[in-house]
Amino acid sequence: MSISAWIELIASGLITGGIYALIALGLNLQYGLMRILNIAHGEFLLVGAFLTWMVHTNFGISPLLMLPLTFGLMLLLGWGVHWLCFRPLTQTSPNLDVFEARGLMVAFGMMFLVKSFVTFVWGGDIRGYDYLSQPVHLGFGQFALNKLLIFVLALLFCAALIVLLRLTLLGKGVRALMQSPVGAQLVGIDTKRLHPLMFGIGLALSGVAGVLLSMAYTISPDMGQAFTITALIVIALGGFGSMGGALVGGLLLGVIEAIAMHYTSPSLKALLSYLVFIGVLVLRPEGLFTRKGRKA
After folding, report:
1. Which of 41, 52, 174, 268 could form a disulfide with 66 if both were Cys (CB 3.0 to 4.6 A apart)?
2. What is the spatial distance between Cα 172 and Cα 195, in angstroms, rounded to a whole number?
3. Is 137 helix (H, G, I), strand (E, B) or coil?
4. How far apart are CA 160 and CA 129, in angstroms?
């Protein structure tokens, strides 16, 4: 392969990995803070993707304008979902293990509920639209403008969350709850307000990922579960609760998939991802980028 071909291959993996990281960050925030393994996370990506497709094709509104709108709508939706579904579980579950099990069952039901809603409203067909697909020459490679834009915006949203968690008072409260929930509550951190807000932000990131995904790829109601599984693989790579690890893990998985599919077959994409997942869980269950006992 030529240098330009290698650059284009790695860049393609990084673009896909940026979306992986964005989805994984939201799921990692929910699980790392609240121990909610939201396996319906990928289904909420569908809401952002199909909503953007509908608005753009029917009214000509730019997907870029849908980013803040989708973020706000999904934030409110996530807030409501937490208060209606997961907050009652915290009050009725005798311990954390029971809460996790019940929360997983609730998320399992929610997965089918959201998918059925998307199929009912927008149908079961594959959708897509053309947006900024013209080629752009950069260095040794040629890339579609919409995919470059996806990569940049995904990194910006990922970086914004990491900065929020590391440099703000709100973020310090979130990290304190991740490290020691009991200790954080003893010093006055209000979990009743913080938990639904962070759950909403996690869901909002999934919706934003859906908006970005719709700008360059076709979408269908069946793709949500695959992205949830991918997010779990990314979290395993980066370490549960590690936001920086999820970002690096997402980019790394995207590159691994791109290179592996080039030398094998695109039909083996899922198999390759599962092999990475199992390998990391067996050889380094705490994640590749997280020190034992410490979360980035």
Report:
1. 52
2. 14
3. strand
4. 28
Q: Where are the beta strands (DSSP E) in the chain?
A: 135-138, 141-144
**Highest-scoring range by mean pLDDT, 139-148, 201-210, 236-245:** 201-210
d(CA 120, CA 113): 10
Q: Roughly how many angstroms between the first and final C-alpha of the chain, as a whole number?
A: 37
CA-CA distance, 213 to 126, in Å (whole number)?
13
CA 30 remoteness from chain centre: 11
CB within 8 A of 180, min separation 6: which ones?
A: none
Tell how far CA 54 is from the center of its chain. Answer: 22
Q: What is the mean pLDDT of residues 280-292?
A: 74
- In the three-class reduction of DSSP (H, G, I as helix; E, B as strand; rest coil), residue 141 is classed as strand
Length of the chain: 296
DSSP string, 191-234: HHHHHHHHHHHHHHHHHHHHHHHHTTS-B-TTSHHHHHHHHHHH
Q: What is the pLDDT of residue 204?
A: 95
Q: Are 204 and 38 in contact (CB under 8 A)?
A: no
Residue 293 has pLDDT above 50, yes or no: no
At 171, which amino acid appears?
G
Residue 210 has pLDDT above 90, yes or no: yes
CA atoms lying within 13 Å on the CB side of residue 90:
13
Q: What are phi and psi of 209, to 5 degrees?
A: -60, -35
Q: How far apart are CA 289 and CA 175, in angstroms?
A: 17
- 144 bridge partner residues: 135
Question: What pLDDT, in 10s, does the model give residues 240-273?
Answer: 878 888 899 999 999 988 888 888 877 777 788 8
**Tokens standing for 97?**
């293990």
